Amino acid sequence: MASSMDSCLQLVVAVVFLLVFSVKSLKPNELRPSSIIKKVNAGGPYIGLISVYSREEDAFFSTGGFKPNPKHPYVDLSGRRFRFGKIHGKPVIYVRCGIGMVNAAAATQQMVDLFDIVGIVHFGIAGNLNNSMSIGDVVVLKQVANTGIWDWMKVNGTLELNSIAHLDFGTYNVPKGNETNLLGRISFRPEDFHSESKNPNTSIQLIWAQITPKWLQLATLLEGMKLKKCVNSSLCLPQEPKLVVGLNGSTANIFVDNGVYRDFLFRNFNVTTTDMETSAIAMTCLSNGYPVIVIRGLSDLAGAQTGKSAIDTFGSLAALNTANVVLKFIRMLPLNYYLYY
Ligand SMILES: *[C@@H]1O[C@H](CO)[C@@H](O)[C@H](O)[C@H]1NC(C)=O
Ligand SMILES: *[C@@H]1O[C@H](CO)[C@@H](O)[C@H](O)[C@H]1NC(C)=O
Ligand SMILES: *[C@@H]1O[C@H](CO)[C@@H](O)[C@H](O)[C@H]1NC(C)=O
Ligand SMILES: *[C@@H]1O[C@H](CO)[C@@H](O)[C@H](O)[C@H]1NC(C)=O
Ligand SMILES: *[C@@H]1O[C@H](CO)[C@@H](O)[C@H](O)[C@H]1NC(C)=O
Ligand SMILES: *[C@@H]1O[C@H](CO)[C@@H](O)[C@H](O)[C@H]1NC(C)=O
Ligand SMILES: *[C@@H]1O[C@H](CO)[C@@H](O)[C@H](O)[C@H]1NC(C)=O
After folding, report:
1. What is the reported pTM?
2. For the packed helices 101-114 and 278-288, what is the interaxial angle rounded to 10 degrees?
3. In Å, what is the CA distance from 86 to each residue of 20, 42, 217, 294, 331?
4. Domain encompassing residue 175
5. Which of 138, 166, 189 is the last residue of a domain?
6. Same structural domain for residues 288 and 240?
7. I need a surface site. Which of 45, 128, 178, 222 has the fewest CB within 10 A?
8. What is the pLDDT of residue 199?
């Protein structure tokens, strides 16, 4: 009896201590995240914006298009800063998710769970797999595949009947032909897709996550828009960059800087871009029933170049061209958002 009274008392002391401690850790006038979120949501609905890393973020802010909310500029959640503001007078919430698919999906899920958003505009730079496209061009994707899910098999291992792509390492032996490459083969497998509109017991096998058709259609009106050609007075792209709407993209937790793998992806999946976040963001939006659009600027050739990747030379220009497309898209998005799903 006495010991249970004791532990009860200890619990009360611990709870009081925690309360006092957590209140003390807030600076004067500082609100709890939940309280900021509540206040901010009252000013919605918002367009959610997600970039990946600093180069893209710097370019985005350098346009001056994002006007921070003076009263509640941001809230930090799970180590990411969600910033509140307006673009062309429309409320937006912006976050930089960090590189890779886990970061991308986690930040997206948080965005849709906690904030009053109408949909997600995802933007950033990407590797270019398509020889008809050039560094500096910007792509609005139509659909995106997670091309990072492979069954790693024995040499000549039996493929699934409906296998849509596989890679035999031995095909790339140099000199060709006579040795067995014990790395065997990898066989693509579609992703397990769960959606709130489906029975929770079932998932479907997803190859392509589809971009919201009405948002994509709206983006086609931007084709032909002028993009920047020069990094500075002495460094320019060899051609005028262009915006192309409706191409396919690929995502994996792999940074591709290898010409042979680049060609494999292009030939087998009909994809123009390679990045490390898009399919995770698109799939999370679709699972939760939110519209999504993806705008990616081409920063490098994913390994088709001789020598160093162009990402350090033209990455910032690609990011700036991308940010400018994002601003124009938000300007065009009609305020009766819900008619545009
Ligand atoms: C794999 O298949 C090829 C072509 O059928 C054959 O030449 C080769 O001997 C096989 N290799 C192994 C390790 O089974
Ligand atoms: C493989 O091919 C190379 C060049 O064609 C040849 O020199 C080598 O002897 C071959 N190796 C085997 C194990 O057949
Ligand atoms: C899911 O499966 C379980 C076990 O098979 C079953 O009891 C349950 O009713 C199913 N739920 C739905 C929503 O179908
Ligand atoms: C232009 O940018 C390149 C790459 O960042 C740099 O090497 C070069 O010095 C810059 N030139 C001028 C005139 O600023
Ligand atoms: C995108 O992928 C689909 C399915 O593989 C293919 O039919 C279509 O031609 C591709 N789009 C482009 C622009 O290549
Ligand atoms: C790529 O396009 C070709 C030709 O349109 C088609 O046969 C093939 O199935 C497509 N690949 C994928 C992965 O959709
Ligand atoms: C490559 O880019 C060109 C030019 O934009 C486009 O017409 C073509 O469909 C793209 N090919 C693939 C496979 O996406």
Report:
1. 0.88
2. 30
3. 36, 14, 23, 20, 11
4. 150-189
5. 189
6. yes
7. 178
8. 87
Q: Ligand 3: which atom is nearest the Cα of residue 200?
A: 13
Confirm whether 166 is domain-assigned.
yes
Q: How far is the CA of 295 from the centre of ligand 4 (A)?
A: 26
**Ligand 5 center to residue 247 CA distance, Å?**
7
CA 45 to chain centre: 21
User: Does 204 lie in the same domain as 111?
Assistant: yes
Helix (H) or strand (E) holding 157: none
Residues 159 and 206 occupy one common structural domain: no
Q: Is the pLDDT of residue 17 over 90?
A: no
Q: Atom 8 in ligand 5: which residue has the minimum CA distance? A: 270
Whether 218 and 71 share a structural domain:
yes
Please identify, by atom number, the ligand 6 atom nearest to the C-alpha of residue 270: 1
Domain-located, residue 4: no
Contact 174 CB / ligand 2 (< 6 Å): no
Length reported for the chain: 341
Whole-number percent of the chain with pLDDT over 70: 89
Q: pLDDT digits over 62-83, tens only?
A: 999 999 999 999 999 999 999 9
In sequence order, what are the residues at sequence separation of 6 or more whose Cβ sits closer than 8 angstroms to the Cβ of residue 209? 143, 144, 145, 146, 193, 279, 282, 283, 286
